[in-house]
Amino acid sequence: MALRLRTEMPELKGITEWVNGEAAKEDFKDKPVLVHFWSISCGMCKESLPDINKMRLEYPQLQFVGIHMPRSEKDTDVDAVKEAIVKYELKHPQGIDNQHNVVDAFENEYVPAFYLFDKNGVLRHRSAGEKALSMLKKPLERVMGELE
């Protein structure tokens, strides 16, 4: 069961290693945040990464945090994850969560998965799987509209 809507954003604690800077819940005061879970062994995840980069340019006020969620022992290779981060030009903070501490805090089971929090740190949307990004569009526009 994934994190329930209207729940406060969990802490981002217990990360194995951060790439592109650390992220903490306190950093996002009064800012909307998109937390996306992905894995190097997930083909759908790799397909969605360029779209996330486009979104980062399209919504400069939106904060992004990637959480790499290993799905097998092979996925825990930190160097391989770092290579993927460079290859896919992920410039926002990336947490490598080899112990599933953040994964468990979010009660997340899937990759790719997206959790959208509003400027008050409240979960407004979550989606996972193949259509996850397309399902994110309207809630994202709503949350971003609340900043105006």
Automatic annotation (TrEMBL):
- PROSITE patterns given in the database record: THIOREDOXIN_2
Give the GO molecular function terms: antioxidant activity; oxidoreductase activity
Q: Does the keyword Disulfide bond apply?
A: yes
Could you tell me which SUPFAM superfamilies the record lists for this protein?
Thioredoxin-like (SSF52833)
The cross-references to Gene3D superfamilies, in alphabetical order and at most eight, read:
Glutaredoxin
Task: Give the matching InterPro entries.
Answer: AhpC/TSA, Thioredoxin-like_sf, Thioredoxin_domain, Thioredoxin_ResA/DsbE_sf
Q: Which UniProt keywords apply?
A: Disulfide bond
Output the superkingdom of the source species: Bacteria
User: Start and end of every Thioredoxin domain?
Assistant: 3-145
Q: What is this protein called?
A: TlpA family protein disulfide reductase
